[in-house]
Amino acid sequence: MKAINRRDFLKEGVKISSGTLMGANSPGIFTSRAKEETSIDGFSAVIPLPVQVVIDDVGWWSGRDGSKDQEPYRSGIQRNHVPADYEAIVALGKALDIRPQAAMVLCEWDKANILSALPSATWMGKSWDNSKWVGPWMEEAADIIRRNKRHFEITLHGVGHEYWTGNKFSRAEWADTNGTMRPPGEVEKRLDFFERIMSQHELGAFPSSFVPAAFNHGFGATADHSVSMAEILSRHGVNYINTPFHQMYNAEAVRYPYFGFDADVLTVDRGKDLLDWNVIGIPPTGVINGPTCGMHWANLLHPDPARNVEIVNKWVQLLGPYQDNADTMLAPDSDYFQSQLLYRTLTKITRTKKGIALDFKAIDDRSAAKVKPGFTLKVKSEGALRFRSKGIKIRSIQSKKAKGHFLYALRLTGMKGSDKASVSVFHFNTRR
Ligand SMILES: [Zn+2]
Predict the structure, then answer these.
(1) For 9-50, what is each residue's pLDDT tens digit?
(2) Domains of the chain, each with CATH number or no CATH
(3) 214 CA to middle of ligand 1, Å?
(4) 3-state secondary structure of 403
(5) Which of the residue ranges 4-8, 168-172, 357-361 would you say has the lowest mean pLDDT?
(6) Could you tell me the distance, in angstroms and rounded to a whole number, from the CA of residue 250 to the centre of ligand 1?
(7) Distance CA 249, CA 44 (A)
(8) I want to staple 355 with a disulfide (CB 3.0 to 4.6 A). Which of 101, 296, 415, 424 is the partner?
């Protein structure tokens, strides 16, 4: 960015109004007093809430809800899945410049029937035979995933989604309906098999994110297990879990409004999805109230795969404003999402004569491991602004003019050692 020179600085002065911090329960948010919002000299600054798109139950080739026959619920639609259904995820990612999480179930991708060695993971048990789903569509879909890593993140969701004892299943794969984890040995085996099926198709490294099947999950250790699900996952490289807290066992132990740490794994509240799990071909409506836009694969698709794009476009329309609003943003990927959420929650913003001061003292060691990607600060003003930072780098500035005000998105990064940084704000327009 072009820094304002000293002469301009002296001539224009620093025309800012005094503001108020919005109370201890709104950290990360700073704004002028309402009556000053309209002042040419007023501006408001916010570390916006990131919204991450998470799409469950990706990976089935059959769409059929088989639950009445002790088969998985799958995606619950009346047709098979096709490579175009993977294109839909990529198209959403490209249109919004984000990397949606595809929470995948991989049993129907097993082309060597290795799952016969893990009978509790599928409805066929030891006689597991997946040959009917082995075909060229696998390579086509794998190719889409491999070529579009920037717009498709594989998230661990399950191998068979449920847990079979003999030929009956119970919900769900990783934990029962009380959130009690399955035996650790079973959990470990599933992680290994998920990885092995991924490598059958060269789908890349094991995921770093997890969505529990059927959202059955416990925060911390459950029943008489000595380790938590998060702890086991963490040994396999998972560092972030996304699940609705209203369905999570021991959610009351979560420390912050939208997230908690289980071992060193960030566990984030998914909240409520806008659509039911098996709704297909219907434009989404409603308001996203937290940091996750959760949906199921069917919700992004059309009964006719050639028309998937129509539904994808409706999601683009629904999500676009979250990027443009002052108080929210679409997370570009899940790493940035975690970083932004931590900065949003843990940064204290105060007003200074020159602009704003940022205090990162509340970012402890465990959080510090996650905040490398930096964060976005949004500044809203009636006039055009310039910025200069100290103690942190401004990597980029995007600006937009709409409805009579300017909205700036500053990408800040490179905070080193110090707990403090500042952003000076200069007005271009002076009206005296
Ligand atoms: Zn699921």
Answers:
(1) 333 322 332 222 333 334 555 543 333 333 336 899 999 999
(2) 6-47+349-427 (no CATH), 51-324 (3.20.20)
(3) 5
(4) coil
(5) 4-8
(6) 21
(7) 38
(8) 424
